[in-house]
C-alpha cells in the first residue's frame, strides 16, 4: 500500500501544482524555463505512475474489502466508462461541440472514470486510487473553470461532423478497451468475457 500512496502523492501532486500553487509554478517556469519545468514534472509523473501501478498491483494481491459493490454499480460503471472515453476523445479532436461546451473534457473524463470505478469496486486500494483521482479531478476542474472565467475565455463553437466523429471514435475506443484492453492490461474483464 505504501507504493500506491507514494505514487498517488507524486503523480497527483505533480498534476496539482497549478491548482494549489499557480503563482509559484509561474515563478519556477520563469526561472528554469518551460522545457525544464515540463521535463521535471514529466519525470515526477512517470515515477509516480510507476509506483501507483506497482502499488495497486500489490494491494490487489492482499485485498482489504470495505464494501460489496451492488450489481447495478458495475452495470452503471460500464456506461460511465463509455462516457469517459467519449470525453477523453473530445479533448483531442478539434472543433467538436463537447469540448466547446464542457471546456475541460479530459478532466471530466477522469472524474467519470474514477466515479465509475468506485461504483464497481469496494476494496481499500480502489478507494485510495479512484477516490484520489476523483478528488483531484473535482479540484482541478473547479480551478480550471475559475481560470477560464478570470480570462473571459471564449471557446470556438464545435460542428456536427467533428462531434459525431468524436462520439464514434470514443465508442470504438471504449469497446476495444472493454473487450480486450482492460483484461490484457489490468487482468480483469469488465464485461465478464
Structure description:
This protein has 193 residues and is mainly α. The chain has 2 domains: 1-62; 65-193, no CATH class. The chain is 80% helix and 0% strand. The protein is built from 9 helices and no strands. Helix 4 runs antiparallel to helix 8, helix 5 runs antiparallel to helix 7 and helix 5 packs across helix 9. The protein is globular, with a radius of gyration of 18 Å. The mean pLDDT is 92.
Question: What labels describe this entry?
Answer:
mainly alpha, single chain, 193 residues, 2 domains
Q: Tell me about the biggest sheet?
A: none
Order of helices and strands: HHHHHHHHH
Number of strands: 0
Helix content: over 70%
Mean pLDDT: 92
The N- and C-terminal alpha carbons lie at a distance of 29 Å
Task: Please give the domain count.
Answer: 2
The shape, in one word, is globular
Secondary-structure-based class equals mainly alpha
Radius of gyration, taken over Cα atoms and rounded to an integer in Å? 18 Å
Beta-strand percent range:
under 5%
Number of helices: 9
Poorly predicted regions are: none
Topology (elements, then pairings):
Layout (H helix, E strand, L loop, with lengths): L1 H13 L2 H4 L1 H11 L1 H28 L9 H22 L4 H6 L2 H16 L3 H27 L9 H27 L7
Helix pairs in contact: 1-4, 1-8, 3-4, 4-8, 5-7, 5-9, 7-8
Briefly summarize what is shown.
The chain has 193 residues and is mainly alpha-helical.
Amino acid at each position: 500500500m505504501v507504493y500506491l500512496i507514494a505514487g498517488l502523492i507524486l503523480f497527483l501532486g505533480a498534476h496539482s501544482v497549478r491548482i494549489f500553487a499557480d503563482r509559484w509554478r509561474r515563478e519556477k517556469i520563469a526561472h528554469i524555463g518551460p522545457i525544464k519545468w515540463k521535463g521535471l514534472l514529466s519525470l515526477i509523473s512517470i515515477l509516480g505512475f510507476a509506483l501507483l501501478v506497482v502499488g495497486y498491483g500489490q494491494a490487489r494481491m492482499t485485498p482489504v474489502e470495505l464494501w460489496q459493490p451492488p450489481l447495478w454499480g458495475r452495470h452503471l460503471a460500464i456506461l460511465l466508462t463509455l462516457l469517459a472515453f467519449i470525453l477523453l476523445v473530445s479533448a483531442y479532436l478539434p472543433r467538436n461541440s463537447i469540448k466547446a461546451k464542457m471546456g475541460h473534457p479530459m478532466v471530466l473524463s477522469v472524474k467519470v472514470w474514477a466515479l465509475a470505478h468506485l461504483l464497481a469496486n469496494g476494496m481499500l486500494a480502489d478507494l485510495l486510487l479512484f477516490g484520489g483521482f476523483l478528488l483531484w479531478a473535482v479540484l482541478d476542474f473547479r480551478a480550471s473553470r475559475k481560470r477560464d472565467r478570470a480570462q473571459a475565455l471564449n471557446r470556438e463553437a464545435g460542428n456536427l461532423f467533428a462531434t459525431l466523429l468524436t462520439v464514434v471514435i470514443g465508442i470504438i475506443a471504449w469497446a476495444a478497451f472493454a473487450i480486450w484492453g482492460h483484461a490484457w492490461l489490468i487482468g480483469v474483464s469488465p464485461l465478464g468475457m
